[in-house]
C-alpha cells in the first residue's frame, strides 16, 4: 500500500509524494526523477524495493516542482539551486531521521549534487548510499544528441533560444495535443534500441503534464551546472553509476567522469540503451539499487549492534 501526501514549501509550491514501506524501516530511499518526467519513472524500482521482505526500506518518490502532480513553479524557482533546497526540505519533513539512499535519474541526479553542494553538513550526516542514473555533473559539456559536433552546436543554440521563450509561457500545456505526432522524435531522443510502447507512452504522458515554463525554465541551470568538485563529498559513500551507451542526452562520458571522481562507485554501461534506463533497463537499475540498499542495511545493522553493546554491558 502506498501513502500519498503533499508538503507545501516556503514559496507556496506544493510537492506531491508517494510513500511506501514500513514507517519504522531503518533506511529510507528517496527517488528523484528527470526533467519533464515524474515519479512514475521509478515504478519498476518501487515494486522491487517493496519485495525485500524484512529489509524493505521506506521509499519516497516525489514529483519535482513544476512536474507531475506537484504545483507549478515560477521562473525564479525553475533552477537546480531551488531543487537542491527542495530535496533538503523533503528530507526534513518526510524522512527527518536515519540514513537515506538518494537515487537520481537525469535532472534528479543533478538535484542530488546541488543538495550536497548547498547542504553539505546535512548530506554528510544523512546520506548513506547513492545511485546516479543517466545524469551528469558537467551540464551540457558532453551532450551531442548523437550528432556531429557542428550539428549539435546548432541544435543546442536553437534549444537554448526556444527554452528561453518557453520559460516565459506560463503554466499552460498546449504541447499535449501534438505529442502523438512528436512520438518518433521523443523515442529517438530518449530511448535506445529497445522501447516498449507503454514506456514510451508513460514518457509522453509525463512530458504532457509538464507546463511550458518547466520545460523551458530549467534548461539554463541544467546546461550550466558544474559539480564535479562537489563529488568529493560522495567519496566514501557506497554508490552506483549507470548509463546507456546510446544515451543522446547524458552520454557515457558523463557517467565516466562521475565514476572517476567516486572511487567506490560501481559503473555500469548498458549496451544499446538510451536515456530512460529506469524504464528500458529496469533489471540493471534495480539490481544496482538493491545492491546499494543491501550494503546500507548491513552497515546500519552493524552500527546499531555496536551502539547497543555498551548499553547492555552497563546494564549488567
From TrEMBL:
Gene3D superfamilies: alpha/beta hydrolase. Keywords: Hydrolase. The keyword Hydrolase applies. SUPFAM superfamilies: alpha/beta-Hydrolases. InterPro entries: AB_hydrolase_1 (IPR000073), AB_hydrolase_fold (IPR029058), AB_hydrolase_sf (IPR050266), Epox_hydrolase-like (IPR000639). One of its GO terms (molecular function) is hydrolase activity. The keyword Hydrolase applies. GO terms for cellular component: membrane. Residues 29-287 form the AB hydrolase-1 domain. It holds the Pfam family Abhydrolase_6. This is Alpha/beta hydrolase. It comes from Actinoplanes awajinensis subsp. mycoplanecinus.
Amino acid at each position: 500500500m502506498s501513502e500519498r501526501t503533499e508538503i507545501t514549501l516556503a514559496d507556496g509550491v506544493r510537492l506531491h509524494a508517494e510513500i511506501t514501506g514500513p514507517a519504522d524501516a531503518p533506511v529510507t530511499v528517496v527517488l528523484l526523477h528527470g526533467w519533464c518526467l515524474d515519479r512514475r519513472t521509478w515504478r519498476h524500482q518501487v515494486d522491487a524495493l517493496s519485495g525485500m521482505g524484512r529489509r524493505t526500506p521506506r521509499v519516497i518518490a516525489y514529483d519535482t516542482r513544476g512536474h507531475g502532480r506537484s504545483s507549478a513553479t515560477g521562473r525564479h524557482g525553475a533552477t537546480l539551486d531551488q531543487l537542491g533546497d527542495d530535496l533538503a526540505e523533503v528530507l526534513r519533513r518526510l524522512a527527518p531521521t536515519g540514513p537515506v539512499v538518494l537515487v537520481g535519474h537525469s535532472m534528479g541526479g543533478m538535484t542530488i549534487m546541488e543538495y550536497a553542494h548547498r547542504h553539505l553538513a546535512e548530506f554528510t550526516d544523512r546520506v548513506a548510499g547513492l545511485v546516479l542514473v543517466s545524469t551528469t555533473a558537467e551540464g551540457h559539456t558532453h551532450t551531442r544528441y548523437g550528432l556531429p559536433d557542428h550539428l549539435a552546436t546548432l541544435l543546442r543554440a536553437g534549444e537554448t533560444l526556444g527554452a528561453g521563450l518557453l520559460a516565459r509561457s506560463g503554466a499552460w500545456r498546449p504541447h499535449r495535443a501534438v505529442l502523438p505526432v512528436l512520438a518518433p522524435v521523443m523515442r529517438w531522443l530518449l530511448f535506445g534500441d529497445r522501447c516498449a510502447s507503454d514506456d514510451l507512452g508513460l514518457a509522453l504522458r509525463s512530458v504532457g503534464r509538464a507546463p511550458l515554463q518547466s520545460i523551458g525554465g530549467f534548461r539554463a541551470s541544467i546546461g550550466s551546472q558544474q559539480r564535479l568538485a562537489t563529488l568529493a563529498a560522495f567519496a566514501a559513500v557506497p554508490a552506483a553509476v549507470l548509463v546507456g551507451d546510446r544515451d543522446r542526452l547524458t552520454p557515457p562520458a558523463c557517467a565516466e567522469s562521475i565514476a572517476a571522481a567516486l572511487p567506490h562507485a560501481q559503473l555500469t554501461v548498458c549496451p544499446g540503451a538510451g536515456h530512460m534506463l529506469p524504464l528500458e533497463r529496469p533489471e540493471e537499475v534495480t539490481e544496482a539499487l538493491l545492491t546499494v540498499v543491501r550494503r546500507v542495511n548491513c552497515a546500519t545493522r552493524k552500527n546499531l549492534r555496536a551502539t547497543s553493546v555498551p548499553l547492555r554491558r552497563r546494564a549488567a
